[in-house]
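Its record is retained below.
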Amino acid sequence: MDTTAIVQHQLDTVTSIKSDTAKIGYLLNAGSVYRNEWHKREQENPFLIQALELAEKIGDSLQLARVYNAMCVDQRNVARYLLAVNYGKQALDYASTTKDSVLLSTILNNIGVAYRRLDDNQQAFEYHMRALHIAEACGNWRSQAIAINSIGNIYLSTEQYDKAIASFQQSLEIEKQHHNNLGLAINYANIGLALEGKNKYVQAVDYFLKSLSYNELINHRQGKLISYNNLGQAYQKLGRYSLSLDYFQKALQLSDQIGDVIDVADSYISLGYTYLLMKKYPEAYNQITKGLSIAQSIGSKSLIMKAYKALQEYYAAKGNFKQSMEMLEKALNYKDSMLNDKISNRMAELEVLYQLDKKNAAIQLLQKEAYLKDVESNRNLILALSLMGFIVVMVIGGYFVIRHRELKIRQRALQLELQSLRSRMNPHFIFNSLNSIHKYIWTNQPEEASDYLTKFARLIRMILENSERDFIPLSSEIEFLSIYIELENLRCNHSFEFVLQIEESIDTEDVMIAPLMIQPFVENAIWHGLAPKKGGGILKISMKLHEQQKLRVEIEDNGIGRQKAEEIKMQKNPKHKSMGLRLTEERLKLLQHSLPFNLQQTQIVDLIDGNQKPCGTKIILELPVEFAYS
């Protein structure tokens, strides 16, 4: 019997169940199995649709809360996170009228997870804290452990590794007290990931092995697969390549047994990258291209991008820089495509939410019309209700107008992020960097070539990773700027010094800013101010908090000044305009829409010496700040 027939048989079975509550329970269980075992990526779940219709028919708040909570989890599992949040909040509204604290804390945790998948860590943190307080009050240890573990994951995603470890340890103790082996496996793995983030790979291996032992104890295949991959990655970082290969081979065998083609492709690419680090180039190429072929056959853009990035490093190691550049361009094209898909998916979700809101508004208006007919004899009451109906329509219309405007702003923000990423991946910078590496190799300077290539690869990776986030720790932005400036200084033959001044009160791990906002101004200072100057250049970047909600950044150079730079530009390329600066200004304007305070417009100050001659330029900009729960 095929899955369609099985689904129909189960839906038919519901009619034989007498109790409506029992029918809903049956449909919720069937809906979970449907999503987990048969239709992992289809958007609609027929069991939950029927459960919702039945719950609405009987008008039971508890059952409506249970159904909407199931729909929240269901939509989250197919990566429709905006819809998951919407259903979760509806579940929360119904659950709030009941006295079921266990259900209430469960719903809050589920909403928190959906917000975390949307990279809205502030909202995620608040919902998990609410879940934790309710779970502690009613003694529900399971929701406590989940909330604390989820808070740890928020710290992990924002690279606050010590706070993450403390949360995971706290969750671990709760799981130990209640002998929950799955919870132990999950928390041990998470602690390992946090230690790996701190570059403590030996300790990370110990925790990954503990996680594996518990997954083996309960025969949790997906957990074992995750453990094999974690161990493969950790041993790879430790340079213990034979052990890394063993665990990636185990991951490949298990993913093949499970039948998950995505994991099979990922394992091949991981194996290939390990061979690449071992300088076993034929084996590396063979495994990476196998993974690439499978990824292309199933259309997994993230794995295709991962394979091309590995091939880029393969060709660079072989000295074929032209092919390396082509692989990098392909990886970036898939990065662009993934960002476009993200925009399209969010647009589709917002359209569904719009239709749901429209449907609810129509239902409310119909209810009001029916009420008006019932009290038609009372003219004054009709007038009052008509006025109320008009206000409701105006409010709903205003809501749709505001939502449409927010959608346009969000779409423009995503487009700017995509364009901003492209502007950071300046082809001239990439080409010149590869030329510099080639020069070191050609002049028999292997250590310099290796050092430059390592920094260049780290820079590219940071651009790709940071572009996916709305806010990143200031420490990450500083690391990115330092590497970028160091590479540019190498290209300029060390013609300038770099000075970084950070206000002592700033915790760079706690302060979060929008990524990749400062680099265009730094690039401008180097190439239009310092590069034309003959030696003795100084680039100074200073940062300090302003009114606790803004970061004031000053970028100062002692270069040739704007007037002279403009004259040189007019001689070389009079039509050229800095795309990076323009996009950054537009991103700042869009950020302003969501802020309760005003950002100061970017200032450009022309510096002059005692003889009233130009001696450099200073840029002053303000960036909005968030704080990572310190």
Summary: Residues 321-374 form the longest helix (54 residues). Confidence is low (pLDDT under 50) at residues 413-425.
